[in-house]
Sequence to fold (101 residues):
Amino acid sequence: MKVFCMHCGHPIDLGRGYDNYQGPLRCAVCKRLMTVRITVGELRAMEIEPVTVPSALSHPPPTIAATPPPATSAVTPTQTTVKRHERQLQSRPPNTTFETS
Fold:
């Protein structure tokens, strides 16, 4: 049995396996889905399924501001540790010595 796509007109050869069939049928060319009802090798009903647009495609994706890459410096971890200790030493009060007589 041969039916024609309702959207693009492409012939669809169903063969003898579809002599008694009711259900979906997809066109191999335009990929549109149709619902058919075939009884005793004769096409009784055929309708094209409406195209639905998924909600993800109907709205543009949100724009995401690009974050700049982290700043890199030529300071090695040991240099950073030394600088941190120097700052800690500078923030301490000077050592005071007490002399007893």
